[in-house]
Amino acid sequence: MASVSEQQANYVLRVVEERRIRFVQLWFTDVLGRLKAFHVTPAELEDALEEGMTFDGSAIDGFSRVQEADVLAKPDLDTFQLLPWHAEGEGVARVFCDIATVDGAPFEGCPRNRLRRILDGAHDEGFTFFVAPELEFFYFDSLEPAGPPRPVDLGSYFDLGTDNVAGRLRRDTVRTLEEMGIPVEHAQHEDAPGQHEIDLRYTDALTMADTVMTVRHVVKELARQAGVAASFMPKPLAGVQGSGMHTHLSLWRDDTNAFVGDDDRYGLSPLAHQFIAGLLTHAKEITAITNQWVNSYKRLVPGNEAPVHVSWARNNRSALVRVPTVKRTKVTSTRLEYRAPDSAANPYLCFAVILAAGMAGIRGGYELPPEAAGNLFTHTEDSDLPMLPTSLKEAADTMAGSELLHETLGEHLVEWFLRNKRAEWAAYAETVTPFELDRYLPLL
Amino acid sequence: MSGHDAERTRTAACIPALTDELAAAGRLAGLRAEAVADVAALAARLTAAPNDIAAVVVDATSCSPADAMAACKLLRRLDPPFAPILVVVGMDQLDELSLRDELFDDFAVQSADPRELAARLRHVLVRTGSTAASSVVEHAELTVNLENYQAAVAGRALDLTYMEYELLRFFATNPGRVLTRETLLNRVWGYEYYGGARTVDVHVRRLRAKLGEEHAHLISTVRSVGYRFG
Predict the structure, then answer these.
(1) Which residues of B touch A75 (CB under 8 A)?
(2) What residues have CB less than 8 Å from A117, skipping those under 6 apart?
(3) What is the ipTM of this complex?
(4) Strand partners, A101
(5) Measured between CB atoms, does A420 come within 8 Å of chain B?
(6) Could you report the per-residue pLDDT of A150-159, keeping only the tens digit for each?
(7) How many other CB atoms are there within 10 angstroms of residue A70's CB atom?
(8) Mutate to test the interface with A, among B77, B153, B159 (most CBs of A within 10 A)
(9) Which of A186, A185, A170 is nearest to A230 (CA)?
(10) Residues with Cβ < 8 Å from A25, sequence gap 6 or more?
(11) CA pair distance A34, A221, nearest whole angstrom
(12) CATH: 1.10.1200.10, 3.40.50.2300, 3.30.1330.10, 3.40.50.300. Which one for B6-128?
């Protein structure tokens, strides 16, 4: 009897034929969260679906290993999707892949495998993890790195901007995403000039990580077609807010939201308290993953709506963990919001470490510290709250000493990631910046 | 006329096995009843002699109801979908049939007399004729072609993932009914699926997104129960 996967394979092959697909892009993600792809023709697809496609992984960041350069891309048929911006009859589809070693075992360097393993671990304890990120990004005239980039519009938060290019582009992007089965909660102009935000409807974390990869690709691709450029760089412009990926989290046990409780005044369960405590306890350790670039730490500074302290609070946008207010009639939408990640994180690893931190709180029965009061954006370093790492170096050093991160990501990923990030820091450290020239050259 | 010429007697294929009752029913209906192990074996028979198999009897009492329904599903997925299908169930398996009407053409309870089984076989033969069951489901501006897996709304092709297609197909073949999340999980995702009902909500949202704002209402939410199509 044909298994579900055979039925899926038949379905996919039939769609390829009916929709006259010319190429199928096999998508996967490197350790730094960049989308990689290679193309197969419909003729090659059947083999690719059955056996996977072998390729040389040594050129992919985080995949290289001297003794095993060849790896296998195994398409996940659930994710087979047409790319709607290609012309009728010239169809192109994509399918996400898991990376395996040539003998078929899950490859240690594959972020998608890693997230799946962490989700399976939570699932063994009866939990399903749902996430809903808010992706911020900028539309610029160009991405040529000569001087600061110029935003394509000069709007600000919630501007209607009915006739501007960026507004139209954002609407087209949302329509395209919906056509691809990516429901958008809402989309809006953000605070900074040229900055926009797309909020995604919750789904399971693996699908959402795929979705984040897709959204980043679609936003950039449609911008390119419109003659502008989109960037998810965490802090492209000084003096205005950066691009975060605030992520809403909920944990479900069967069909019940495990964060819902009636024994505290916020409607949170003891389990939600432990989850928050886990996030706070391990926040510093996971920051290298949620904020993985030198530039990420230019966003995590006081005064620009990004968290700097390790804190939680109800409905306080300056806290690291926020508990959004939920209508009494909609307690099932009870959730937490983790506000550190930026739009340039690797979504697979980001969701994996967030879940691991929260689950550590549950498994260890952590105590929830008191809620932070007041506006933390205006707090400075002399606040007695612990601080998030202030540089990639500090974040990497903290990660290196974290048992949780070694356990969650595995030695292969941790070792490669730290080596890469320390090299990035070293290159940055020896750079003479415009700041130094401006400030010191005339003076010293 | 002296009945059927032996060479022209067509076959009632019985999956997975042949019982005495089914053999007798076949004779009474003018068919030669024969055991066929599974759908793969049947598909091979159809390829070799396309007109030989007149009907398939899927006997859920000789396997599990889940296997029987899976066999029906596969028969309907053949190209073209196979019909007619008669399902034989135990009295305690009747529930398994609900909301699966598209998977079979008639059914009988195990205790049925061979004469009743034969009458039902003749009935489905006449009703479905020699051609396959309709392979296109239409509802308002939505069409779902079960033969080539293509769905369209107002003439615009929908590009669906496999599970989205299965969900839409199930909705479209059960219009006007309130379908609980449980039902949808069981019938669309199948027995081996262990996820929660949230999965259904997530997929319904994706389907609505693909249907587009104008047609998203085709699937309406029935508060605290589930969904209704059409």
Answers:
(1) none
(2) A106
(3) 0.85
(4) A71
(5) no
(6) 888 765 555 5
(7) 11
(8) B159
(9) A170
(10) A37, A38, A39, A83, A92, A93, A94, A95
(11) 14
(12) 3.40.50.2300
